[in-house]
Amino acid sequence: MSADFALTNLTNHFLIAMPGLNDEVFAGSVIYVCEHNEHGALGLMINKPSSIDLRHLFERVELPLRRKDLVDAPVFQGGPVQTERGFVLHEPLLANQAKGSESVYASTLTIAGGLEMTTSKDVLEALSTGAGPRRVLVSLGYSAWGQGQLESELSDNSWLTVAASNSLIFETPVAQRYDRALMLLGFEAWMLAPEAGHA
Q1: 74 FRET partner, CA 20 to 30 A, in 2, 36, 45, 89?
Q2: Surface-to-core class of residue 182, CB atoms within 10 Å of its CB (0-12 exposed, 13-18 middle, 19+ buried)
Q3: Over 70: is that where the pLDDT of 198 sits?
């Protein structure tokens, strides 16, 4: 199993929902895969903003927000699991670049070859003081798949996969992220329409 799995490890990749995926939560979504191993997968949707912005989230956790660049940034719906819990996707901090170094935050997942995902409140406290990671995406909830579940959905053609792009996560306008993710594969949405090719 592990030899086969090594060929399909999608950590630090995007999952792009196929147009035929009519799931209420995942239709039209782009998911950044934070972890994928033989036990399952975990990721965050990066193109579905919630109804609140970071200013309101920080008010809710009773912290000021002294990062003017972040006050109007949306809080994303990361997925349907633990929707009351915050997940902060951010660039690796320089202190973590050295091999084997500990994260500066209490609970951080270092994503192989990619970003970091922090779930402890100390990252929000750092942002509140005007410090913290330069580029962040904050979500409530996450997306998860059990053992073999994502592989099954991939074989059913529910998702396309492509190596993740940090600029797409942090710089691309939210409304353009789905189309830009498809462009990483050389596709446009109309090429994948379920009815394409039928007279």
Answers
A1: 36
A2: buried
A3: no
